[in-house]
């Protein structure tokens, strides 16, 4: 009996231990996660965790000295390039290991391995879009280049050395929550990061919706509503810039394309306003007489930050800036001689081709008047707690047929992916983007900048440049397909070779401008050029608003300083309000408003058109404009049965300002015939009533900062690991483009000159550990619109007062 | 006495992996030193809870309890002290049951 009792008690104890060691659903294994010996308590860092230490690491060739400053930013001093990139991998892994792991998993379609069946659809999407296929091609290109092979392998070794010596108790907290272990990195992981950037910045598509538009409304209406050049524009390359090259012959449109666009044959979604700003003010307009460069790329804001700040120095290079955790080199930054930055181009580098299969076996498809063989690629997706899933993807010469039949498509999401079409995407091609950054990091002058750009494939970026020799320049740059006008605006017929990409725009003929007479260069995702540029890049770009405001401000600037640039990065003046409100006021009949509506009207009437945090006018205008847009297009372009693409903001503004009697203002669901004035009136009354109902009488609750919901979430949206909501100014179409969880992910200003001086800030911190004092120590500075002076050391022993600790790595 | 031994052993095992070493410590301590079931259970419970609270606080106080606050929010607990109490409770249950098993086995072996 006693023995039975003892065994029973032991069995219960073992069962308890098993339960506490096992993951149930989304909850972590509780015993493992809460125990002080290997649970989350181990991740709680003390304030002074930055102890100086010396480590011996295999694989190093010499000695590396790493100085950590007061923000935990590493300044690496290596004796050779191999050790420099090895150390970059090592320190990045030390701060950001989980982020590196999850980014790679996401890009390579391996989330289900750790998250189980709920991640299968997203994994299949990434596999079927050819992310793995593209990364395999890219890594081939990178490894052919001996310099890039060396730095990628060194970086990977550095990461792996850190992982190999990492105790389980020191695993980043996310590994403990999700109950899995870090795995060793491979060179292809660097390529996955590039694919992820291409997906974010050049992976959207509205071709499917545009094709539906064409079917529903006909070519005449679509040509009118979706012009190839906007009404309001101020292009990146200044109007009137001469093209001093002899262009290649432009491919002829295919016969099918012409028929589609002239006959009335019945045959990813609207991009959100994400983008970025950069500009350089030439020496003639600055107080110091040397150029000042500014850049703020807008991306999804997350903790840990998408960027990792560092300084990298070896006998061949000394550069400061931000890197992508998981990839070598500095992506945006400066050295003693040059500085550079990027914004997204929005080039059309992703096209869909309709495929005609011979039969249901889908072994052959019709192209160039004959049957051609398809190939197949089997994607094996491992799923936690289940058998692996085998997904076969059919490829034509264009690329993967992402969803060859409707049943392959997930029930939600992927709405903008057409069924039965092959994907031609530049991100599938062999490429060598890191060479661009390798060369820019070491660049000394304009010629070095131009050479570096020739290596860049995707996602195409507006590379802006300034150097101490006074040269300034900007180049919308990437590998851009040679196309006929509007090729890829709609889904293309995949059987006609004339619809294929016919080569590439030569790199030296990508639009570029050096030292323009106006004394500055800038970009904010608007059209690359005016319509005189001989090649076709895309039919639409980001809205002109930010670019126009930047150019207006820079035009008026004299004796500018770093602080003038900082204030400009925080500017929240709305060009849209500037363009739209006079017409709104013209058409609104205030005598028809009731007392409360009138109060609302007076607020917006007196508004200074700044999207400031405490502005009520901004909230009213924003709602009014959105409602006006919705009421104009909702009746025609909202269709439950098919995905349609409504006309652009720019075209809507043009209708409002120039074509108030347009038939598009008529609400087809009412017997009355509405005009622009009716829609202005109705949309105002609707939003005034909505806001009065929702927020009561105008007051604090109406303030823009409280309405627009700014926040920064943890990369896995873990509650408590982000900032929570905070009040801040800014909006999608103003320079300070902070909206929701998206906005300036790194603000940098660099004053060139004999002594270069950099300033910068990102929302977050260097450490990816939510239990570190450096997890979000830079956030408040960023939120307040301030910049930190960056510590750019010329030698490891310089400025010891700013150094908190030293890490020495020895072989 | 048993309480103190378990507390010290649990504290030391907090520096080693895996975390369930603590169960073996409590089990062995009670196997050799346990008297009654009740005394062993509560010594195990109290010893491990106390050791875990001390170990957790040693990490958490220099951290300004920042991480504990975040994890409490993740578990939808209103205060970080509650995540500490949950930790103590789980440690206590493991310690208590292990010690109880130890003393019961001792009794079974004696007869």
* Biggest sheet descriptor of chain B: none
Distance between the termini of chain B: 24 Å
The value of Rg of chain A in angstroms is 28 Å
Bin the helical content of chain A.
Answer: 25-40%
Integer average pLDDT of chain A: 93
Q: How would you describe the oligomerization state of the chains in this entry?
A: heterodimer
| Helix and strand pattern of chain B | HHHHH
Structural class of chain A: alpha+beta
| Overall shape of chain B | elongated
How many distinct helices of chain A? 22
Strand content of chain B: under 5%
Report the strand count of chain A. Answer: 27
State the end-to-end distance of chain A. 63 Å
Mean residue pLDDT of chain B: 95
The percent range for helix content of chain B is over 70%
What is the largest interface, and how many residues per chain?
Answer: A-B, 40 and 47 residues
% residues in beta strands of chain A: 15-25%
Q: Name the overall outline of chain A.
A: globular
The side-by-side strand order for the widest beta sheet of chain A comes to: 1-27-2-3-7-8-9-10-17-18-20
Radius of gyration of chain B, taken over Cα atoms and rounded to an integer in Å = 15 Å
How many runs of DSSP E, i.e. beta strands of chain B? Answer: 0
Descriptive overview:
The complex is a heterodimer of chains A (811) and B (111). Chain A has 22 helices and 27 strands. Chain A is α+β, with helices and mostly antiparallel strands and 811 residues long. Among the domains of chain A are: 34 residues; 128 residues. An eleven-stranded mixed β-sheet of chain A has the order 1-27-2-3-7-8-9-10-17-18-20. In chain A, strands 4, 5, 21, 23, 24, 25 and 26 form a seven-stranded antiparallel β-sheet that branches. A three-stranded mixed β-sheet of chain A has the order 16-11-19, with no helix packed on it. The longest helix of chain A is centred in the N-terminal third of the chain and has 27 residues. Chain A is globular. The termini of chain A are far apart. About 1% of the residues of chain A have low confidence. Chain B is mainly α and 111 residues long. Chain B has one domain. Chain B has five helices and no strands. In chain B, helix 2 packs across helix 5 and helix 4 packs across helix 5. Chain B is elongated and about 50 Å long. The mean pLDDT of chain B is 95. Chains A and B meet through helix 1 and helix 2 of A and helix 2, helix 3, helix 4 and helix 5 of B.
């Amino acid at each position: 009996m006693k023995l039975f009792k003892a065994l029973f008690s032991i069995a219960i104890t073992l069962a308890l231990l098993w339960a506490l060691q096992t993951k149930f659903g989304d909850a972590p294994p509780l015993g493992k996660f809460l125990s002080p010996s290997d649970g989350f308590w181990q991740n709680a860092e003390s304030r002074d965790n930055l102890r100086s230490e010396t480590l011996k690491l295999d694989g190093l060739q010499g000695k590396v000295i790493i100085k950590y400053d007061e923000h935990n930013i590493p300044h690496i001093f290596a004796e050779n390039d191999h050790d420099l990139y090895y150390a970059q991998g090592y320190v990045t892994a030390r701060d950001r290991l989980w982020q590196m792991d999850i980014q790679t998993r996401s890009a390579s379609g391996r989330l289900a391995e750790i998250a189980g069946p709920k991640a299968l659809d997203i994994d299949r999407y990434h596999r079927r879009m050819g992310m793995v296929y593209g990364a395999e091609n890219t890594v081939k290109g990178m490894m052919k280049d001996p310099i890039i092979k060396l730095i990628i392998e060194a970086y990977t070794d550095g990461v792996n050395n850190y992982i190999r010596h990492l105790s389980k108790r020191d695993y980043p907290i996310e590994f403990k929550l999700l109950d899995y272990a870090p795995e060793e990195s491979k060179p292809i992981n660097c390529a996955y990061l590039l694919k992820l950037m291409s997906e974010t910045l050049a992976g959207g598509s509205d071709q499917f919706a545009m094709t539906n538009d064409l079917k529903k409304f006909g070519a005449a209406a679509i040509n009118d509503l979706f012009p190839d050049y906007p009404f309001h524009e101020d292009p990146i390359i200044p109007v009137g810039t001469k093209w001093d090259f002899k262009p290649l012959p432009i491919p002829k449109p295919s016969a099918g394309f012409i028929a589609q666009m002239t006959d009335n044959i019945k045959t990813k979604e609207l991009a959100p306003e994400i983008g970025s700003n950069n500009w350089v003010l030439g020496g003639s307009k600055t107080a110091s007489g040397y150029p000042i460069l500014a850049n703020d790329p807008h991306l999804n804001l997350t903790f840990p930050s998408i960027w990792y700040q560092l300084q990298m120095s070896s006998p061949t290079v000394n550069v400061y800036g931000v890197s992508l955790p998981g990839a070598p080199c500095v992506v945006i930054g400066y050295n003693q001689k040059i500085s550079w930055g990027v914004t997204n181009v929005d080039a059309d580098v992703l096209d869909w081709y309709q495929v005609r299969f011979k039969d249901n076996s889908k072994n052959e498809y019709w192209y160039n008047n004959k049957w051609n063989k398809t190939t197949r690629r089997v994607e094996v997706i491992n799923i936690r707690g289940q058998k692996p899933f085998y997904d076969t993807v059919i490829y034509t010469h264009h690329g993967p047929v992402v969803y060859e039949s409707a049943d392959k498509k997930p029930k939600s999401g992927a709405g903008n992916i057409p069924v039965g079409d092959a994907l031609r995407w530049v991100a599938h091609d062999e490429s060598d983007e890191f060479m661009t950054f390798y060369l820019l990091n070491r660049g000394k002058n304009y010629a070095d900048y131009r050479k570096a750009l020739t290596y860049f494939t995707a996602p195409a970026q507006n590379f802006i440049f300034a150097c101490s020799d006074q040269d300034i320049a900007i180049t919308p740059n990437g590998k851009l397909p040679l196309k006929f006008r509007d090729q890829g605006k709609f889904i293309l017929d995949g059987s006609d070779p004339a619809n294929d990409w016919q080569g590439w725009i030569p790199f030296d003929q990508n639009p570029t401008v050096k030292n323009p007479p106006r004394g500055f260069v800038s970009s904010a995702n608007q059209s690359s050029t005016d319509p005189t540029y001989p090649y076709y890049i895309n039919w639409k770009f980001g809205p002109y608003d930010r670019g126009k405001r930047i150019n207006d401000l820079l035009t008026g600037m004299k004796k500018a300083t770093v602080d003038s640039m900082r204030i400009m990065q925080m500017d929240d003046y709305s060009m849209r309000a500037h363009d739209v409100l006079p017409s709104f006021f013209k058409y609104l009949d205030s005598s028809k408003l009731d007392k409360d509506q009138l109060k609302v009207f007076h607020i917006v009437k007196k508004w200074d058109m700044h999207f400031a945090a405490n502005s009520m006018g901004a909230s009213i205008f924003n709602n009014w404009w959105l409602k006006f847009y919705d009421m104009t297009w909702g009746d025609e372009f909202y269709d439950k049965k098919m995905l349609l693409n409504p006309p652009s903001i720019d075209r809507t503004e043009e209708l409002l300002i120039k074509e108030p009697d347009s038939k598009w203002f008529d609400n087809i669901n009412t017997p009355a015939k509405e005009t622009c004035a009716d829609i202005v009136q109705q949309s105002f009354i609707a939003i005034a009533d909505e806001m009065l109902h929702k927020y009561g009488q105008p007051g604090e609750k109406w303030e823009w900062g409280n309405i627009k919901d700014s926040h920064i979430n943890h990369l896995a949206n873990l509650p408590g690991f982000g900032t929570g909501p905070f009040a801040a100014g800014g909006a999608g179409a103003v320079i300070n483009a902070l909206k929701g969880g998206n906005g300036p992910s790194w603000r940098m200003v660099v004053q060139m000159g004999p002594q270069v001086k950099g300033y910068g800030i990102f929302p977050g911190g260097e450490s990816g550990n939510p239990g570190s004092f450096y997890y979000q120590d830079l956030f408040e500075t960023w939120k307040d619109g301030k910049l930190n002076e960056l510590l750019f050391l010329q030698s490891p022993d310089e400025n010891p007062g700013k150094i908190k600790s030293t890490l020495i790595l020895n072989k | 006495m048993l309480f103190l031994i378990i507390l010290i052993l649990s504290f030391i095992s907090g520096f080693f992996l895996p975390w369930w070493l603590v169960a073996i410590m409590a089990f062995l301590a009670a196997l050799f030193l346990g008297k009654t079931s009740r005394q062993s259970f509560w010594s195990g419970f109290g010893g491990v809870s106390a050791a875990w609270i001390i170990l957790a606080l040693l990490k958490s106080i220099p951290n300004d309890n920042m991480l504990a606050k975040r994890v409490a929010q993740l578990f939808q607990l209103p205060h970080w002290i509650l995540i500490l109490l949950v930790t103590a409770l789980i440690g206590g249950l493991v310690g208590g049951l292990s010690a109880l098993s130890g003393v019961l086995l001792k009794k079974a072996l004696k007869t």
